[in-house]
Fold this sequence. Notes:
By secondary structure, the chain is an alpha/beta fold. Helix content is 35%, strand content 13%.
Amino acid sequence: xxxNHSQTMAERMQRRSSRHLCINNDGxxxxxxxxxxxxxxxxxxxxxxxxxxxxxxxEKLERDSLNIMQxxxxxxxxxxxxxxxxxxxxxxxxxLLQGFSWESWRAGAGDWYSVVGKNVDKFxxxxxxxxxxxxxxxxxxxxxxxxxxxxxxxxxxxxxxASLESLIKTLHDNGIRAIADIVVNHRCxxxxxxxxxxNQFTSGNNTxxxxxxxxxxxxxxxxxxxxxxxxxxxxxxxxxxxxxxxKFDAAPDIDHANQKVQQSIAIWLxxxxxxxxxxxxxxxxxxxxxxxxxxxxxxKSAPAWAVGELWGDMQYDDTGVAHNQDRHRQDLTNWINxxxxxxxxxxxxxxxxxxxxxKNCQYWRLKDASGKPPGLIGWMPKYAVTxxxxxxxxxxxxxxxxxxxxxxxxxxxxCTHPGIPSLxxxxxxxxxxxVRNQIADLLHVRRESGIPVDAPVNIIRADADSYxxxxxxxxxxxxxxxxxxxGDADGSYWEQGPQGKDYRVxxxxxxxxxxxxxxxxxxxxxxxxxxxxxxxxxxxxDVSFPDxxxxxxxxxxxxLKAMSKQEVEQLIGKLEPLxxxxxxxxALKK
Length: 590
């Protein structure tokens, strides 16, 4: 591919008959350089397109090669090579979109992946960098959360493997990463044992299994893969559930302490990356198995980044949701640390507090005893993924929904505060263009401000009906929430940004760029204009300007003096449109 690409570029240059005239600094024609085809004569758009296509071809070849070799290479060498292909995500710039809702399997009529692919331009407009896609494997439940044959992607209600791979290529072509929903706490058997228990698992008959002997039987498990004591266990397993593992009654709980299970899942994850194209992971129901295994699977697959769903109960007192939720966010902190910080976590603490504050006009909740944000973002912002709703809390399930009339207030908070903001499909795609544009505006000022994922927060006010905070150091964003008017910010420092019902945002004004020194007319010794009264004719010696380069030639005062009238007229013709464009740009920025 590299040789073909170089040959194509060479042929394009050979077809060019035009040349640039190259002149040395002393004004003498450089005949040798003038014979060389100039890169400036290559179509820049075509060059960019060719380079992009070449890069994609190389990446695909590398992924394909590693996919073929993954069962043969030492894991250390494999992971190092994968890291070079997949890379790592910059947490300061991530904006995650959940690319489905609870009903998407139905709405897509068997090919939800195509629905997502057709809306990529909207995602780019909003500022999305990563899309979390639904569980890709065959599943007993159509939503994908009761997976069976993990390698069988053609059995998904969201579409087949070819459609998924096509979608991910489209996302990559548009600079968007694909995040897979990894459901491995439990797995549904597709066959029964002699006692009638559904605890026999097969990998699934797809092209990978048929064409790759080294993958044969990778996911063929029996009762030995289930935790001891589980309803579906046949007693041949090795380990009981961990002390703090949550129970999932609808399907067999998988024994992640079993090394064969670990190896199988690691192979599957790497296959999802190298064959299908996924870049990162969203781990489902992580309270069902130890966090150390999430860390292990990340180390065995080297995703660009990962996030886990640890949904625990909030703390309550006599008044309802307690003000102090330190225990809740401590659980999230402990989980992240137990993964060896290989994964971030959804900030359920912030969601619970924020929706309570918005719903009941209790904005005092948004400040903890230390004067910091009360959620995970107040303790570990680099590992906190903030969100308003997802397919469980909102959508048609509505197990724990954010108040509908306050959703934009919620986004005003998470888009201006530290942490990694996550958007929900329903809000972006189903609630209309106005809501989508409002969220896009909020994300725009976030990017423009340059606040990092761990930006400090200075909470100026947290009363019942008003919350005001400045984010960044120095302050780059200012946000006010609540029905009470927050007053106008200092106009010399802040510029008004997006606003709506119960929220206002400001962004720090950027200092005006220092203009280049303007040409100056030299004063006569008598401090009078040399052309005043016609006493003295103006000459080029009376005008000074900084050296500039035009068409690759350095233009100095001496060079200008040596130019013919025709050459000067040609120079004016080149510079005048630029000057007019600069004046127009200046006028538009007022």
